[in-house]
């Protein structure tokens, strides 16, 4: 056999091996073809060349949002476990997922953001540089989410937004490389507003408590705008406090002297707990009716069911939705089995963000970022814990229901975690502003 025949035979054997491999690992072969056709961008293809891909997670594990950050982290961790094992719950959301995403196991690193944008950005920059993170996630603080939006667009690495209630995250601070699945200020306001008007009527006086950053200001504006325009309510005072304030007495004194009939508390995390507890100590509650327009995971547990009784709140998810949605039931069972308590909406939000990312990548057939982004932007119905959902291409916001809940009487609680009664599940499309209403301009793919 001549040398050129040997060479040809080797090439045929190699081609045959490639065909066999394509039958066994179609995702890997699609990714290889994409790598041949596209220029490197962000951490691609370096971050996808092994048998695993890496995601950087930054959540507050210390500070005023730590309790919510830990719950969120558990949701991410359970999602990774389910993605890597091909769990039926993940397959219900991402049908093409078997074990891993495109045949690759998902690994992750965790950093404590302490709800500080600079800490989150520095941690995620390390994950991108040192671990070749193919995606990053985090939030809980919308200031962190906005900062990570900017990092993602600059580094051309996908940002899978965790908890973020600010309108700005998919509004004026939106980016092509960021996506968000949870509800936010405008949708919360348009969901809870009608419930408040139905329950309490028009022309009421309200005092707002607002944390001094993008989440607080946009939620307060959306809620106040709705109640003012549709119900003639009046904001008699807006008490703005810094993140992590230890004492709310001066703010509560101003509220006590304002003539308000309603206390609308937009504070979040431990700030919400302290401000609500101190409002009760000051005698404002139950004299004033409390409203939580953007529900805080674990707030009811921390302040007590007696304080939350009769309180209206808007939320992303509540565990008793398992009675209505099969996937919610699967999730609640799996989460409680692993962690020993009913999941709050932060954990559900995190799980869904990773599950929907897996679906988008599998649908694209590649980790190549522009193609994954276009997968998010292509219209199709997706399954979730709260029924069918879809992505809105213009601002990368998930169109999803908002859940209105009302605090139960302690005597009506079925168990120690049965704090809220689900009043209504409101379809998301009618709650959202027009895509360009908040100044979204996604920017470029490359």
From TrEMBL:
Residues 53-408 form the Leucine-binding protein domain. CDD domains: PBP1_SBP-like. Keywords: Signal. It comes from the Bacteria. InterPro entries: BCAA_transport, Leu-bd, Peripla_BP_I, TAT_signal. The keyword Signal applies. Belongs to the leucine-binding protein family. This is Substrate-binding protein. It comes from Ramlibacter algicola.
